[in-house]
User: Fold these one by one.
Assistant:
Number 1:
Amino acid sequence: MVYLTGKDVDVFITTENGEQATWVYSAAASSSALGLAGEDPNVLVSGALLFATQLSASAFPTASGTMNMTGVDVSIGATDEDISYVGFRQVTKAEIKKETTVALTRKKQDTLWDLVFNSARFGISGASAGALAAFPGLEEPTVNHGYRIHVQLKDGTEAIAVPNAYITGHTVSVSVDGTADETLEFMSYITPKFANSSSANTAATSGSQL
């Protein structure tokens, strides 16, 4: 487990879709929680908040929905299966898959993370704004499922990208005499990417990596 503070790293969230960013509407702005996004994440969608830019192979994201970040917790573990043998107390650990968990904590400033957790936990699909929809999660995973979490040291010497991460939890802690904090948890079974170059960390996931 590695715990980093907001002053140590820059955090960017992208989709796994090269054409679409994720925007969400507040309840007052639209009856639909998931908003439509244009291909350019810098073009404001009226009444919407930007959560994740589209995946770009040319550079690290220039915008993100993770302002006021106070903590980043990165954990890498493994899922094992125990194999028992007659006459042995010890068991064999058969590795099934690796798992990476990222927990982002920030000062709560709006309802953005609430809406994303309720409406777009598994990422978005669609190659055009008119066809944009949230993955329901009850389907076979594809290379476009989930979000990609980029954690880069402020000095730019090291970066980790966790691809195809699903949102698994959202918590809000309220203090009587302070600002509320909220944590968004992501988990992925795809091997993280460690590189300094933006092209290595933003390359699309291949089918063989699933």
Number 2:
Amino acid sequence: MSELWPVIHAYSRRQAIADGVLVELNLAGEAGIPWPTAITTAAREEAIAWDESNRGIQDESGRAWDLLICTRFAMARQPREQLVEHRIPVTVHRVPNIARATVARPLQLVAYIGPGDDGEPVVTVMLPDED
């Protein structure tokens, strides 16, 4: 119970992943991000999703890797004391997931490092207008 208000309902990160609201990015550790990392479905659609009918040599695993590397470098630019509980801007240059698109365009995202279900640090990548 909060000091001011009783908690009526809580929605855990575990539940959000099970419901598909968040998608785990399992390669985060290999990309140099030391904490469990997930992305919102809206951000995933913009940054990672790739329709195989679009021409080109891209695929979702490569796009996810690019996102993770950009996230790691954005985190590395932050002072250590500003990592936890801060919204870190991340820019990913990606080809939009539309037919005949070939030019990479910048996409602004945010990486939020905060407490997970058990208080451990976790990273959530999202669009700037998401919370």
Number 3:
Amino acid sequence: MPRARLHATNADRQRAYRLQKRLTALAPDIVCKTFGPCTVYRSDWQAIYPLLPRHAAVVTDPPYDAGYDVTQARRRPSQWTRNFEGYDQAFDPTPWLTFPEVILFGADHYRERLPAGGSWCFWDKTPGRQPADFAPGELIWRSKAGPLQKFVHLWCGGMRAGEENHSRLPRKLHPAQKPIALLLFLVQQITAPVVIDPFMGSGTTLAACIRLGRPCIGIEMNPTYFETACARMQKELQQLPLFPHPTAEENP
């Protein structure tokens, strides 16, 4: 696999800055914050959608009906007192398929709405373990053609590998939070100059973009998760010198 470009150019930054000014001027009532190459909006995606750059890539874990309630206890009492918006609704990917590059999590739940072609990545969440009542993995759809990919990273209830292991992150930031290692792997495959996450949740996609120096746009309608993501972006910028740039060949 060819290595993706890891650093934003001056043109990328200027393009993101112009977009920020345009969005702020046309939607002044929407909360907008910037963190380095990242611009985030507290809004529903419909309000921002007409103004998004059509040359951008979309990388997101959208809300969809996965058939479970995150407030219900599984092996232990749930930390969540309410579900996130859209957890019980069907997801329509159509508005996002007009972008040149698209990566969608949980795509097996709405496979019939995706166009023919593209490619898939299987995230193995329970390597070497019995999944019990947790899903053994998750399918991720990529609009670009290519071979089946596999990403191995433990993510099974309280058992999590990497930066988000239980000693570092006792409580997840969002019910559908994804590991930063996985988003780094996926974002590096994007060649578009800007990355959009219209359902940013706790901001993992954007955190990966900040580490990679990639201009990005995040949208989140829930005020609590929006503030969580903002705090996370600020922390990422402060810690940026600590993170070496990973390569696209990691965990192929």
Number 4:
Amino acid sequence: MLKVPTAIEVGAVIIGALSGAIHAVGRKADAIGTFTIALATGVGGGILRDVLIGDGAPLALRVPLYLPAVAIVSLAALLFANGLARVTRALVVIDALLIGFWTVMGAERAFAHALPATAAVFLGTVTATGGGVLRDLLSGETPTLFRKGELYVTAAFLAALVYVALLRFVRAPLPIAELATIGFGTSLRLLAMRWHLTAPEPFDLPGWWRRRRRTPQ
């Protein structure tokens, strides 16, 4: 059974919760609001994944370290808000790294339950981006998923494709597939933010074809 080490999972939860807590503090949330948004960001994607898989209680409720870690991070954000605000730029890089980590965790969880490759891609994407969507909804903002911006969900989706392709079709060793996926997802997200790469917009193909036919050659 594929299994990401617990230390890595808890580390990803802590960084995700820290990102959510800073997001909440920046919007003047109180203690309960900060904890709620930190919790949603840190474990929301994993909870969505586990609910979709349907194998008992989500890991966030079964692993005893998850909730205390989120509580400690939330408290730190409330007590050291000004200091943590200075590391926001570093969190951008860490958030990009988390896309790769969470994608791997979601896809591996799918394979651990003998789900097909398509389900692994879907669950990898949901795990990587679900927390951010929940954070935005709780903050009263339009989720990143529905806003035009640098590649985010697309980065997770393509990273999940890379992981599944390496593991199932190339038959690469598990550590190689994990590292390649994390590196690819992180790099794609950072490059998208650096060069403002966005997903394609809807395109009116019939309209384009009609205009093309009317244009004199």
